[in-house]
Amino acid sequence: MKIASAVARYLAGVIFVVFGLNGFLHFIPLPPPSGVAGEFMGALYVSHYLTLIFGLQVVGGVLLLANRFVPLALAILAPVIVNILSFHALMAPSGLPMALVVTLLWILIFINARSAFSGLFQARFEPRA
After folding, report:
1. What pLDDT sits at residue 4?
2. Cα 38 → chain centroid
3. pTM for the complete prediction?
4. CA nearest to 74, candidates 25, 44, 115
5. What is the C-alpha separation between 92 and 97, in angstroms, rounded?
6. Residue 32 needs a FRET pair 20 to 30 A away by CA distance; which of 19, 20, 104, 121 works?
7. Contact assessment for residue 11 and residue 64, using Cβ atoms and an 8 Å cutoff
8. What secondary structure letter does DSSP report for 124?
9. How many C-beta atoms surround the C-beta of residue 102 within 10 A?
10. Measuring CA to CA, which residue among 81, 64, 80 is closest to residue 72?
11. Torsion angle of alpha carbons 106, 84, 58, 26, nearest 10°?
12. Is the confidence at residue 119, as pLDDT, over 90?
């Protein structure tokens, strides 16, 4: 399982770094989406919200590739992946397979790093005195 997690970490890291940098440098030409998806992306672009998302993708991807602060990278990328999945499931289904692959990679990495998140899954919280 460690090998699968390492491969998933490298693949996810490369995907997030490449697509995050593409948001800034535009080296992979992507046609703009049409319809509601295009309007939504236009609003995100005009508001500069995409700059934040692309930056988070690059930071999370670099942390995964460097194998440093992997739980932090997973925490940074989780909401980004939820937004990617939601966008493709609801507005642009053509990108859904890639979104599902990225989600699967994230899950494989999370399984190996789940002990770092054990505190989040406690039913009750007892503050220190």
Report:
1. 93
2. 20
3. 0.92
4. 115
5. 11
6. 104
7. no
8. S
9. 21
10. 64
11. 140
12. no
